[in-house]
Here is the input.
Amino acid sequence: MSQGSKIVENGVTISRKPAIYLVGMQQAESAEIDRFLSDHGVQQWSTDTEVAAQKLTEIAGRMCYMSFAKPRPGGNKAYLGNIIDVGHGSVMEHAVYNFILTGVSRSFTHELIRHRAGFGYSQLSQRYVDESRCEFVEPAVIAQDPELHAQFVQSCAEAQKSYIELTAKLATGIEREHPDLSVTDRRKMARQAARSVLPNATETKIFVTVNARALRHFFALRANIHAEEEIRTVAIEMWKIVLRQTPAFFSDFELRKENGIEVLWTAHPKV
Ligand SMILES: Cc1cc2nc3c(=O)[nH]c(=O)nc-3n(C[C@H](O)[C@H](O)[C@H](O)COP(=O)(O)OP(=O)(O)OC[C@H]3O[C@@H](n4cnc5c(N)ncnc54)[C@H](O)[C@@H]3O)c2cc1C
Here is the structure.
């Protein structure tokens, strides 16, 4: 049975496409910006971007040198382009994005959370959430080969069956040994142990808050020919989204093909 990017086979739901939701971005407080400017003797300053993240980073950069008067031509795009050229990357830490990623594997999130600087995470808990009906993310290279695909589905089905059996047995044992524990705590104890048989392919959901500087570094490392396919795919899709929203931070990245594989390239990999 097929449900768009998902298929159900042998009782197992296979997910083949990550979903990326940009659920939050910043807003600028115009009255407070004007109050700051007038308190500091700036009679008139405006910029040509309506995008809060781009406006706020320009203000942050200009505040460093109090360079609001007589701005150079080219507007916000040129201003932030120069920030990237000269490597004044800390200014871009003031632009923040909130994403929810779903349909991604635990392998993917294990790689993602290695990115520490400028990233914040909240991930689906396998201790609290029942994984009896979890989905599995199938790598494209396995999905395209019928024999490998059948083996993948069988492995996932067996892991899921094991998880369900272990959870039930553990729950009975825990109830006998710890009758005073709440049902929630007993379930948590059973699930946290039973999850150990679930594979890296198990689908997960992660809330990611990240600033523009950290995202650029992430794209440089993960939308790269050396990166693993799932994280490369997600990185390129995230770049397309933030490029639409805030082109001033990301338009120096180019989508290229290397050995037939889509990658991102920039002349400014770490600013
Ligand atoms: C193709 C590829 C293969 C990989 N293979 C492996 C692997 O086999 N095994 C493995 O363990 N990891 C592997 N990684 C993960 C890699 O080692 C990094 O952990 C990951 O890419 C995050 O990069 P980062 O540390 O630069 O990012 P962040 O943690 O976001 O840090 C950003 C930058 O901040 C600075 N920084 C952050 N923390 C510190 C600190 N504590 N001290 C000093 N400076 C700091 C550094 O300049 C760093 O580049 C791989 C990554 C890639 C892209």
